[in-house]
Amino acid sequence: MNFSRAFISVAISCAALVSFANAQAVPPNLKTWTLEYSVDGGNTPYHRAVTVTQTGGLTVSYFDDRVTGHASPELMAKITDFLKVAKKARPFAPGQDQRYASLTLTAPGLALELEKPDAISALLSQTMNATTQKALIGSWWESEWKLCHPAAQLTAEQMDPPIQILALRDDGHFSVTWQSGGAESPGRPGEPFIWMPDYSGSYNISPDEDRIHLVFESGIRSPRDFSGDGNFEIDDKKLVLRNLWLGTYKAKQKPDICEMTFKRTDEPVQARGRARQ
Fold first, then answer.
1. H or E element at residue 6
2. Is the domain of 185 the same as that of 238?
3. What is the extent of the structural domain holding 259?
4. Are 83 and 66 part of one and the same domain?
């Protein structure tokens, strides 16, 4: 008799679990929703998230920094199909110092933690990385820098001209032109002069770790003290490079700088002041 009761209890529990797993979590015909895929935790503070809205708005966030864009029709179609069969996530408690991912759907009066199939997790991770990569593309000017060790005053010999243009291309190549640097090279007869940066090279990034790697290749000037491995921070109008050095131009020795901030060159020229800290 006890065995029968136990068997019935187990059967009911299994049926409930199957019903929970198979239940569609998302109410049909939601008109307004936001889906966020977030990665958090780890040994050091870490937060990466990509948010997609039903209108195709797309935001990638890194703590307080945000990069915005627009979701492709292909991405929206895959998310729409996923939401038709999405299931509620089971309770999960991450281990100490463990990095974990979550998928959350919000709508008026609704907040659901959803299961993360491998396909949708990979898709949203790829979207996050591609959006970050795209945000780097363009021309940047050095607006400020920070010293590794605070100093009361810098001498003229410790100063170096700022970078007037840091151009990052979508083919994985970059170029650097210092203030008052670069050169014009004559083109073919009858054609305008060609602008030559001080030097150029290749680069790649690891978006999930904020890592950037630049390699010097060639130029009309060779950057002294070049060190291309470091970290980056990006939002829609600001790029911060840390613990790398794009080369010394005129200073007698490498300036004691550990962080350079760049802004997009589409900002007004009169705003290109240079703050020193």
1. helix 2-22
2. yes
3. 137-276
4. yes
144/117 same-domain check: no
User: What ranges in the chain are assigned the alpha helix state H?
Assistant: 2-22, 73-85, 118-136
User: pTM value?
Assistant: 0.80
- Kindly state whether residues 163 and 42 are assigned to the same domain: no
Strand pairing partners for 105? Answer: 35, 112
Q: Give which of 228, 240, 233 is closest to 204, Cα–Cα.
A: 228
Task: Give CA–CA dist 161/255, Å, rounded.
Answer: 11
Strand partners, 196: 183
Q: Is the pLDDT of residue 243 over 50?
A: yes
Identify the domain boundary among 115, 135, 155.
Answer: 135
Give the residue from 271, 231, 262, 25 showing the smallest Cα distance to 144: 262
Mind listing the pLDDT tens digit for each residue in 131-145? 999 999 999 999 999
Work out the percent of the chain whose per-residue pLDDT is above 70.
82
pLDDT for 187-217, tens place per residue?
666 666 677 899 999 999 999 899 999 999 9
* Cα maximum dimension of the chain: 102
Let me know whether 130 and 143 are in one domain: no
